[in-house]
Amino acid sequence: DQDGKLRILRSEVAERKVCAGCEAAVTMRYLCDGSTGVAVDTVDRESLKGYVAEMGGKGEGQGKGEMMKVKEHIFVEQKPDWYRIPEDDGARQWDRFSTEFGDVIERWKRENGVKP
Fold first, then answer.
1. In this structure, are residues 115 and 38 in contact, taking their beta carbons and an 8 Å threshold?
2. How many Cβ atoms sit within 10 Å of the Cβ of residue 58?
3. CA angle 72-73-76, nearest 5°?
């Protein structure tokens, strides 16, 4: 919403932050490894530049102030028709999670007593 307020929705394996006004997904933090995914349609380039500069360019393969790079596109089968994945971004694409990350989640669920 215009106030920038977020709500947290929790599941057995993750915490999702959504806009308090419209419930659009913003981030998903996975409990199995602490990684956070960002919904690409909630980020504009100028805001991201400021954030990356503020964070000192921390991130995989980045120097100070460099833009973050998309590592992979997940849940591609659920993307809206209007969203086009760039053909030249070099990121892997998955209908759900990558095979490796899906295995990490399933192992974490078993180890933590989460039912399938």
1. no
2. 11
3. 155
